[in-house]
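Quiz preparation item.
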């Protein structure tokens, strides 16, 4: 039985779009003039327990950027990323992506996602999504399982691109098409609670089908998938450099 409320998404790639150029530029400039808030309880998890030298390097990158010293800014940004600062890893990934260097950008996003950076998760989802689009990112293998799980996690963390009732409905539909019916149920419910009519209709339809069926499946922790992907990527890069 076909659900009429999913028709708009069927027959399309459903591709997770990378941020448009204006949003990329905004992300690239996130370290411009940025200072780190010092109140731990107000910070997201990835901003806590950051190495002090990483904070210094990140803010120095902002100063260099303000002064137009892009090479020095990039060097300081790399220093902050190497010290494990997730925000620096994400911004560095955006820098590389804007420069067309996706092979350098992807590991940065993976490292940021490992620390539960919402936009890091979203970027990993976009890079690893399976698509027939000829413009898909070259040199990055698709991984539908990692992609949808990172997209779900990005939404859970409130990433801007998936932080509205409509995008929650769309995420539910994508989960449904990938036979992740429990996840679909969760996101349709969240959308419906925010008074999104499409989310409510989809939720009613699932109830009518007696879904989700059975018990929620147990999956390998996302952090393990991310670590495995990053390790495989670094191993491949090491082989290429020999």
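Solution:
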């Amino acid at each position: 039985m076909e659900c009429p409320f999913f028709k708009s998404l069927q027959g399309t790639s459903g591709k997770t779009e990378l941020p448009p150029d204006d949003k990329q530029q905004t992300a690239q400039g996130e370290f411009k003039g940025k200072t780190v808030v010092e109140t731990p309880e107000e910070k997201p998890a990835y901003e806590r327990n950051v190495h002090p030298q990483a904070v210094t390097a990140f803010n120095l990158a902002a100063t260099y950027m303000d002064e137009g010293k892009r090479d020095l800014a990039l060097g300081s940004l790399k220093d902050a990323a190497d010290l494990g600062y997730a925000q620096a890893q994400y911004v560095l990934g955006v820098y590389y992506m804007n420069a067309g260097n996706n092979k350098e950008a992807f590991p940065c996003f993976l490292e940021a996602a490992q620390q539960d950076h919402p936009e890091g998760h979203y970027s990993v989802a976009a890079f690893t999504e399976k698509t027939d689009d000829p413009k898909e990112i070259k040199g990055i293998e698709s991984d539908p399982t990692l992609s949808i799980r990172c997209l779900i996690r990005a939404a859970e963390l409130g990433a801007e691109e998936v932080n509205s009732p409509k995008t929650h409905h769309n995420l539910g539909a994508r989960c449904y098409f990938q036979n992740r019916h429990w996840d679909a149920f969760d996101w349709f419910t969240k959308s419906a609670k925010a008074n999104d009519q499409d989310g409510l209709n989809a939720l009613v339809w699932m109830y009518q089908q007696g879904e989700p069926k059975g018990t929620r499946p147990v999956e390998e922790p996302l952090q393990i998938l991310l670590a495995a992907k990053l390790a495989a990527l670094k191993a491949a890069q090491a082989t290429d450099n020999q």
